[in-house]
C-alpha cells in the first residue's frame, strides 16, 4: 500500500467523493471481503460490492486475493493508498497568476503535492520540513525580503553544483490569517 495517491482524473475524484465510498475505502485499510465490510457498516454485501467495484475501477482499491467460503470464491480487497490527494488541476486554472499573488502559492503547493506523491516511499527519504512565523513591521518588509533573497542565493550558490542528490526547495511567504 502506498502512502499517497495523487488523483488527477475527474473519474477518480467523482468515485472518491461519495461519502458511502469513503467509508468503504476506510474499511479497506486492511484486506477485507465485501461481506466483512458490510457487517461493519451495517449494509448489504451487494451494496458494498457495488461500491468496491467502483473503487477498483477507479484505481483506488484492488483485489489482493481470493478465498473459498461455503463453496463460493470471495474476493479480498484493499485500498491502494493511505491518503488520496485531489489535484487542483481537476478544477483548472482561471485567469493568470502573478508571482507575488496568493494564486502563485496555490500553484506552488500543487507542485509540492505532485512531487511528494510521486516519491517512492518504500525507503526512508532524506527530507526536511520547516515552518515558523516571522513578524515584520511594514517599514522593514523590503529589508526582510532582501535578507531572505541573499540567504537563499547563498545556499543556491554553495550547493548548486551538478554533483550529488537533487532537492527541490520551496518557500512560501504569506499573511497569517486575521492576526496581523
From TrEMBL:
Pfam families: HTH_20 (PF12840). It comes from the Bacteria. InterPro entries: ArsR-like_HTH (IPR011991), WH-like_DNA-bd_sf (IPR036388), WH_DNA-bd_sf (IPR036390). SUPFAM superfamilies: Winged helix' DNA-binding domain. This is Helix-turn-helix domain-containing protein. It comes from Lentzea albida. The lineage of its organism: Bacteria, Bacillati, Actinomycetota, Actinomycetes, Pseudonocardiales.
Amino acid at each position: 500500500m502506498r502512502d499517497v495517491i495523487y488523483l488527477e482524473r475527474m473519474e477518480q475524484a467523482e468515485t472518491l467523493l461519495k461519502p458511502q465510498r469513503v467509508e468503504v475505502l476506510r474499511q479497506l485499510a486492511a484486506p477485507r471481503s465485501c461481506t466483512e465490510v458490510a457487517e461493519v457498516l451495517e449494509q448489504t454485501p451487494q451494496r458494498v460490492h457495488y461500491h468496491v467495484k467502483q473503487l477498483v475501477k477507479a484505481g483506488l482499491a484492488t483485489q489482493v486475493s481470493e478465498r473459498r467460503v461455503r463453496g463460493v470464491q470471495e474476493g479480498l480487497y484493499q485500498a491502494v493508498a493511505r491518503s488520496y490527494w485531489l489535484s487542483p488541476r481537476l478544477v483548472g486554472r482561471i485567469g493568470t497568476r502573478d508571482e507575488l499573488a496568493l494564486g502563485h502559492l496555490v500553484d506552488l503547493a500543487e507542485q509540492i503535492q505532485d512531487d511528494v506523491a510521486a516519491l517512492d516511499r518504500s525507503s526512508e527519504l532524506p527530507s526536511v520540513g520547516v515552518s515558523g512565523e516571522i513578524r515584520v513591521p511594514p517599514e522593514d518588509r523590503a529589508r526582510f525580503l532582501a535578507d531572505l533573497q541573499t540567504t537563499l542565493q547563498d545556499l543556491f550558490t554553495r550547493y548548486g553544483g551538478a554533483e550529488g542528490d537533487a532537492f527541490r526547495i520551496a518557500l512560501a511567504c504569506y499573511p497569517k490569517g486575521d492576526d496581523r
